[in-house]
Write the structure tokens for this entry.
Amino acid sequence: MMLNMIMTCNSCFCIYYDYTVMISAFSTISVHGLSLERLKTFCLVASEGSIAGAAPGNPTQQSQYSRQIKELEEGLGTRLFTREGRKWRLTPEGRKLALLTRAYFQELGSIAASDQLRELRIGAGESVMIGLLLPRYGEFKNLAADVRFSFRCMPTSNMVGGLIDGSLDFAVIRDDAVISDFGTEPLGSLDFRLVVPRILLRERMAASFELLGRVPLVMLSGDGRYVEEVQSLFRKLKVTPNIAVYVQSFPQMAEIIKSGDNCGIMPTWHAAQFSEDRFAVVTLKELQALSRKLVLAFHAKNAVMRPKLRSMAKALSGRIR
């Protein structure tokens, strides 16, 4: 039964070269003990004829290989090798699996060799997209002149789903949103600043967190993570914010603040656009509670099937940081 499933999946790989199908199919059968690592170990032991030959002089690696073969046999519900002393010989079922997996890895190798990364699909929230990614587009093109970039604004939950189903290659997300199937490259910290028109400071008081209870404040609407954290911060510090305007994004907030009548809490890259003669960009210790680590995330299985993704992730993260 399981070998028939493998053959069906292998046919999908050979006929369609569809990365999304590959990831979905492998996720389905991996619960039965299959994984790229176990299958690679199986092929290596089958080729060398023994565990010792597959990992000569390395007892730790030999123990790992032996465990992986056992897990593979348990998952498939059949013996793949007969043990004759130190020799491991393929059973009839083992020979079937060896034929399929070798063909499978050969097809993967062909895909990897022909993978020119013609398009890179990158997801991010609107603020990150406008403040962090799009200004660096020229640098991205210098890294990969022949690649077409597709930038997609979406909430974190949709980005996680996009990486899982293969509709995204990369996503800029918080490190606490990363799941075990993802690979990541660090992008540094997302910090926040208070932006206040200087005319409001002259008329009232020095910039402080308590100021937000007196001057008109622009706030994000909705029930996202940032909104919840800001509301929690106000409650903790016992400050009732003087909210004058609700907006849906930080770029919208920036436009309201530029009118000169409202202040706002903004990411550092958006705060940097305000001129010093008209606006005060203030670092408040209370805002450290809003800081979070950002990463460039990708699906690890997708990177196995398209090896250039991992090196591209490193290159892109180096330009973003």
